[in-house]
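cache lookup: miss for this entity combination. No prior model stored, computing from scratch. Input as submitted by user K.M.:
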Amino acid sequence: MHDLQPVTALGGADPHIDTFDHITITGNNGLALASVAARMGHEKACHTALKKLLGTVPAPGKAVLHDPEAGFWMGPDQWMIGAPRETHELLADALKNKFGDAASVTEQSGAWVCFDVIGPAMPDLCERLCAVPIRRMVAGDAQRTMIHQLGCFVIRRDNPEHIRILGPRASAGSLHHALITAAHSVG
Amino acid sequence: MTQVNRLAGGQIDRTKTCNFTFDGNPYAGHSGDTLASALLANGVRLMGRSFKYHRPRGVLTAGSEEPNALVELRGGARQEPNTRATTIELYDGLLAKSQNHMGSLRFDLLAINDRLSNFLTAGFYYKTFMWPAAFWEKLYEPIIRKAAGLGSLSLKDDPDVYDKGFLHCDLLIIGAGPAGLMAALIAGRAGADVIIADEDFALGGRLNSETLSIADQSGADWAAATIAELSSLPNVRIMPRTTVIGAFDHGIYGAVERVGDHLHTPDANKPRQVLWRIYTQKTILAAGAIERPIAFENNDRPGIMLGSALRTYANRFAVAADKRVAIFTNNNDGHRTAADLHAKGVKISAVVDVRPDAPRSMDYEVLQGEVVDTKGRLGLTFAEVKLADGSIRTLECGALGMSGGWNPNVHMTCHQRGRPVWNDGIAAFVPGADLPTGMIVAGAANGDMSTAGALKGGATAAKLALGLKGRLPKLPKAEDAPINLKPFWYVKGCSRAWLDQQNDVTVKDVKLSHQEGFRSVEHLKRYTTLGMATDQGKTSNMGGLAIMAELAGKAIPEVGTTIFRPPYTPTAIGALGGRHRGQEFHPKRLTPSHKWAEEHGAVFVEVGNWLRAQWFPREGETTWRESVDREVLATRKSVGVCDVTTLGKVDVQGTDAADFLNKIYCNGFAKLAVGKTRYGLMLREDGIAMDDGTAARLAEDHFVVTTTTANALPVYRHMEFVRQCLFPDIDVQLISTTEAWAQYAVAGPNSRNLLSAIVDQVISNEAFPFMACANITICGGLRARLFRISFSGELAYEIAVPTEYGDALMRKIMEVGAQYDVTPYGTEALGVMRIEKGHAAGNELNGTTTALNLGMARMVSKKKDSIGSTLSERDGLNGDGQLSQVGIKPVDPNDPVPAGAHLMDADGPVDAAHDQGYATSACYSPHLGHAIAIGFLKNGTDRMGERMRLVSPLTGVDVQVEITSAHFIDPEGERLRA
Amino acid sequence: MIIDHPLLGPRDASEFTYMGDAKLIDRPDWQSQTAAQEFYEYGYLRDNPAGWHEELWFHEAGDRSWLVVTRNTVTHDISKVELARDVARARGRSK
C-alpha cells in the first residue's frame, strides 16, 4: 500500500460543509469517476454493458441514479460513470474489464469537484447560478451548464431539494465561492 | 417643513413617515411616496436645471419616462447620478441632491446660457468648435467636458453587489396594469408558468392613478384583489420593481430587479439589483402608454407637467402639485384630470381645450384656445391663453397639466427591428406586425386606451398565448369611453417651446434642422440631440416627428420613428457586470501543488485562468532575477521540479487513434511504438503552425496528447472538428484529462536518482530511455504515468498521478529529493531553460509562423494527408527569403537583447523595408552569463555567425548582436539521453 | 439566440462556439490533381449571404457536438439544426 494521502478539491482531508438556514452545501469527496465512450461499430455492445451496469442506458440529458454505480449522459455515445471512491478507487480499470473493446474508458476521478446542494432554497440558488430550468427538472435530469463561467454538470437527485453539481476540480475554490455567494443572496 | 400640498386619500402609508433630505434641507414624506411626490407634497417644484440652458425644471411626469427631475441619489461611494425622482421609492434617511448647476439650484451661474440661447442652437458644437484645430484638445474639449453631462460620479468603487440570474416560463407578462393583470389571472388560473414583471413598486399601473372603477370596486382595489389571487398561485411569479429592459432573439428577455434600491442600505451579502435572463415561450407586452406634452412658449417651467402626472400625484400619492391648477388639452383625458383634481379640492383655474366641441363642466371654466406663454422664474405663476376670438387671458396657476394624447409604449415591440405603424384613430404609433418571437401586445400598449379595452385585450392575449380553448370568461365592467383627440402638437408661432426638456431641444431647433437639411429622423436626432440621453425621447420624440412631418409636407408615418433599442430604461453597469468584477472577474484554476507552493512563498502569475508559480523567492533574494537564476542553475546542476499540470491533456482512444494523430499532426504517428512518446506539430489548414505538444502511446489504441496551456481549449475543439466533421467514421474517442492528472516535470542530472526512490519500477536509461512512457506505480502502489521528455534540455521526466494525489506527490518529491537539493522552479525558470535550449513556445507559435520557419520543414510528412500539409507547400510560404528560427546573442555581453526588437543588417538602413527578422523570446541566461534571445531571421540558417543590429526604435534599443544556433546549451542533446 | 439541439433540445447560444460556413466540412482530397487550388478555395473563399446560411456551431459548454445550424443571418431565424457528423456522412465523408 502506498502512503500518499489524497486531498479534497478544496484542500485538506475532510470534505467542506457550509450550513445556512435554508441550504447546505457539502463537498462530496467520495466519488470515483470514469468516462465510457462507445467504440465505433460497438455501440450495441456498449449499451448492453451499460444496461447491465446501471439497469438502463442514460439518455441524452439524463442520469441513472443507481447503486453502487450511477451514470449520466455526457455527449453522443459518451457517459460518465460514478461510484463510491471507498469501494471503487480503481473504477476505470474495473469498467475497462467490463466493457472490453466495446468502449474507451478514461479515469476522471481527479478531474471533478462535486458539491451536494440540499435545502428548500435550492431552486432559488440555482436560478442565481445557471441557466438550467431547475424548477422543471425532475429526478434523474442531468444537464451540462455554465456556472461562474465554468462548465458544470447539474444533476437533479431523488430528494426534490437536492442537486448535485460537478465542476472542474482546478476551479473548485471559485465554484465553491459562487455557491456560497448565491446562498447568501437568496437567504 | 410641513407637507403643504398633501391631500386626503391616496395609497401612501401615513403611519410610516420617511424623513429625507433634498439639497441639504430636511423634509418628511410617507412610505409609498416617490421622491418626486414627497417633494411636491412639501411644496418643492424646482428639482433641477436643464442640460444646456440651465433652465429651472421640475417634474414633467410621474414615471420612468421622466426627462427633467434627475437627481444625485445617496452619498459617498453609493452616490448615483441622473436618477429619476419620479421612480425613486422614498425610504427613511434618503439623501438626494439636485444636479447640473454652478452655485445653488436657485441661483445657477450657468443660467447665463439661457441668455445665449441664440448661439447655442442645434448644431452649435459642430459649427463652433471647428477651427483652429489646435484649440480642440487644449481648450474646447476640457471646457465642453466640464460643462457636459448632468450628475457627477463618486469615482469610488461601488460597495454594493449585483447578481445575475436565469428564469424560465411559459408566459412573460410585461406590465401589471389592467391588461397585464387580467392576462396573468387567466394564464395563472390555466396553470401556466407565468412571470409578471412591472417596473413600479406598486402593481396596478394606471389603476392606481385613476378613480375609475372595475365592476363594483375601485380600480386600485380590483388590482389589489387580483394580485392577492395571483400570489396564491404557485405557478405565478410576481416581480415588482422589475424593469424588462430588452427583447432579444428567440424569446429571451433581460430584466433588472431592484431588490435593494428601496432600502437605506442593502442587507449584507445581498445584491442591490439582479439582472435576470428570462427564457419564455410567449410574451404579453402590456406596458401601457405614455402621455405626450404640447409644445408652447416657455412650457418647461417647474409646475408644468403631463396631465396624467397631475392625476397620478393626486390620486395615488395624495399630492396636489399646487393649490391652483390649469389644464391644456386636445382630448377628453385632460377633462378627467380636471375632474379628479377638482374632486380632491384643488382649484381649477381653467381647462384650455383646443377643440371647439370640448365637453363643458359645471365645476370649472372650460376655455377654447391655446396656452401661448407662461410666467414664473423658478416656478409657474401665470399662463397666458389665447382664446378662440384672439383675445389673451391670463390664468393664475402654480401647475399646468398638458394632455396631448397618448403614445402606446411600443419600445419593446421594436427590439428585433420591428417598426410601429400609424393609427389615425388615436394619432399615435401602435405596434406593427413584425414583433419579437412569441410576443403579443395588449391594452394601451396596443392602442386600446380604455380600461375595458385593456381588460379584454389582456384576456384575449392570454388565451392566444397559451392556445386556450373556449370562450373568454366574463370580464368585469369597466370604463370604455373614447378620448376624442384632435391632433395638436405645438402652438403656432412659438419658438422657445420645449419638445425635449432633457436635451433642451425646442421647436425652433427642429425647424433649424429641417432648414439645414437634416431631415431624416435619424439625422434630426443626431443633429439636435432630440430623444437622446436617459429618457430616450419617451415624451419628446413624437412632437419632433410631427413638426418635421409638417415642415417636410409629409404624413407622420412617412417620416417614421428612430429605432428603439434596449435597454428600455437606463441600466447600471454594475447590474450588467454582476459578480464578475475584481478577483471574481473570471474563475481561478489552481494547480495541484498550489497549496504547497503558497506555503513556500511562491510568487504566482496568471496564465489564462490558471495561477502558476512564477518563482520561489528565498530569504535574502532581493530581485526576481536572483531567484530565477538560482532555480535554473540548481536544476541544471542537480534536479528541479515544476508543476506542469496546466498543459492541456487529451485522452485519445480507439482503433483509429494513430490514424487520427496522423491527421492532426503534420508529422507521422502510425509507427510510434507502444511505450514511446513523440513531439508533434499541429498545423492549421492554411499551413501555419497552430500548436505543439507530445503524444505518448500507452497502448495500440490509446494515446495521451498534450497541448500548450494557452491552446488547450481551441486544440480540443479542433480535434473534435476533425473527428466529427471531417472523418465522421473514424473510431476515435476523445476526452480532456487536463484536470484529471497532476503532472510534474522533474529535470536535471539527478532526476533519475530522485525518481528511482519514488517509482516502483526500474527506470534506468536502458529500461526507460529518452522518450519512453509507461503506466507505472509509485510509493508502493499508487497508479501513475511516467514520460521521459524534456523541455529544459536536461535529463528529465514528467510524472503524473490522479489529481487528488498531486499535493502528496509534490511533498514526497521534495522530501525524497532533499538529498539532491531538489529545487522547485516556476514558469520564469521554465522559460529561461527552454530559451537556452531553443524550444519554440507561444511567442514562436504566434499565428504567423510555419513549420519551415520553426526549422521543422522536414517534419511535414508528404506521405500522408494531414491538416495543413497541402497549403504549407504554397510558394509564398517556401523558397528564398523565408524566416527561420535562430539564436541571438549580444556582441557586448552587457547589452540586452529584448524580445520584439527587429534585426537589421549591420550597416544597412533601419526601416521596415529593410527588416530582416525579429526576436521573439529573450532572457538572461545564467548558464552563459549574458542575455540571449531566439527569434526569426530571413534565411537565418545560412547566416550563423553574422553580426547584425537588433533595434527597437520604440524603446531606444540598438545593439550589435551575433546570430547563432537557437540551441544555446547542449546542441547535440547528450544530456537528454544520459 | 436559442439553438434547438437535436439531442438536447433548446439551448442558449452562449453555450456554443461559432466557426462559420458549414462548407468547411467539404475538405478537398489531398491527392486530387488540383489539390492546391481546391484547398485554397476551401480555406479562403466563403459566401457571406444576407439570408439563409449553413453554419458550424460547437456545443462547447454542452455535449461537445459539432452542429450544422441553418440560420438566417438577417433575422436570426433558425430553420434546421443537425449533428455535423450526420451531415458529414450524408455528404459522403467517412474516414
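stored under new cache key. Helices of chain A lie at 43-54, 85-88, 91-99, 122-127, 172-185.
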